Each structure stands twice: as C-alpha cells, then as structure tokens.
Known about the structure:
Layout: E1 2-6, H1 9-26, E2 31-34, H2 41-52, E3 62-65, E4 67-69, H3 80-87, E5 99-100, H4 109-122, E6 128-131, E7 153-156, H5 159-165, E8 179-182, H6 185-189, E9 193-198, H7 204-212, E10 230-235, H8 245-253
Parallel strand pairs: 1-10, 2-3, 2-6, 3-5, 6-9, 9-10
Antiparallel strand pairs: 4-8, 7-8
Helix pairs in contact: 1-2
Amino acid sequence: xxxxxxxxxxxxxxxxxxxxxxxxxxxxxxxxxxxxxxxxxxxxxxxxxxxxxxxxxxxxxxxxxxxxxxxxxxxxxxxxxxxxxxxxxxxxxxxxxxxxxxxxxxxxxxxxxxxxxxxxxxxxxxxxxxxxxxxxxxxxxxxxxxxxxxxxxxxxxxxxxxxxxxxxxxxxxxxxxxxxxxxxxxxxxxxxxxxxxxxxxxxxxxxxxxxxxxxxxxxxxxxxxxxxxxxxxxxxxxxxxxxxxxxxxxxxxxxxxxxxx
Length: 261
Ligand code: GLP
C-alpha cells in the first residue's frame, strides 16, 4: 500500500488524473471503476478539464460504478446512476451504454447483482478503481461486518452512513434509503489498481485503520492491505492520525519518476 500525502484534495486529484490519462493513452479501452460521494469530485473535475482541453478521451473506455441505493425512482437526483452522470460521465465522451451500475430498482435484486458481477468479468475486470472511504471505514457500501470475501449484493446501511449521507437528501435522514446494492469487498479486490482518495479530519480515523489497523470486517477498508497495488491519496487532515506519516512522506519524496502511482 502506498500512501501519498498531498497539501489538498486538488493536488491529489491531479496525480490521480495523471494516472488515468496515462492508462487511457496506453489502453484507450481501459475499464474504470467509479465511486460516487464527495471525495472523488476533485478527480472528476480535473478529468473533465483535461477532456475539454483535448488531453484525454473516454470514447472507447468503459466504467462500472460501485453501488446504488435500493428503491429510489429512476429520476431521483441522488440515484447514483444520475449522480455519476451529472458529476462526471455526462460531461466527458463515454459512449452510450459504456457506463454501468447496479440496478437498485430491479424486481429481482439477487439476479441483478449476479448479472453485474458477470458484466464486470465480461469486460475483463476493472483496471483502475477509484474509491472513497466512509467515516466508519466502509468502501462502496460495504459496512462494518461485511464479509471480506463478499461479492455484489444487497446491504443494509448503518445509521451513521445514513446520517453522513443525509446532506445529499436535504438534511433529512429519513429520506435516505435503508438498503443498497454494492460491489463486495472481493469484487473491489479484483480491480488491478485501487486508488483511494480521502480528505478532512472526519476521515482521519478511517484512514489510520485502513493503513495501520488490523485487517478486520469491523473496518472493511482494511481488506485493501491484502491488495498488491493500492494507492491512498490523502490531504494533511486525513493523514493526521497516521503513525507512519513521516515515512510515507520520505518514500514519496524519493520515489523514482518513472514509477507513477
Ligand atoms: C458513500 C459511498 C461511498 C463513499 C463514501 C464516502 O456512502 N457509498 O462510495 O466513498 O460513502 O463518501 P464521501 O466521499 O462523500 O465522504
């Protein structure tokens, strides 16, 4: 696991955008894993800017989102399919149908979850997965207690996550669904490169556990310690509880230029 501490989210976002730009230059048909939430917004804004400047094209790329609320009507602005289109994919040049997400309004939820796993596999798997992290250490919607071997399935959101996400529902926690579909921890672990972005003191404990805690279903993100290629991009606030922060700074300062993230 490589931890890169940057002064702010925008500086981190430029590094992630560099990595995605290089990936798409090498493999224009690469498969991206996209996260919703506020953490990746700076990355998406940077990619949109680079697309508008003619530096990067998504025309042959495909993308899979991580998760979806169950039961929101198709036109609901907080349905993750609508969120990712508004925040990112609708502002660049993905081909129609190239961006997929779990269908939280399917009549048969287990079948739609299995079909989603099959679609990711049929695309050849995810090359680069962008992730945020919840204050309770969840990734996608894999809440504490999630099986470390889980695949896409239905989950019940914790009260903490529903409270955290109420800001997207006009501050009304009762408007936040109780259930979601989410890629499992094993699904996320199958991505070839995982890039997790976090900023702010609210994420400091989750980042500390992710990087330095014992691997445990209590902090689901800790499963990433078993992944061979994870990059954790944090600002100073999110890094504030890392015991090894100085070492991570030294490693990054001495990183060979050819290596990328
Ligand atoms: C949400 C999403 C996650 C996201 C996390 C943190 O509930 N399901 O994919 O990473 O919680 O959200 P934010 O980045 O807004 O803090």
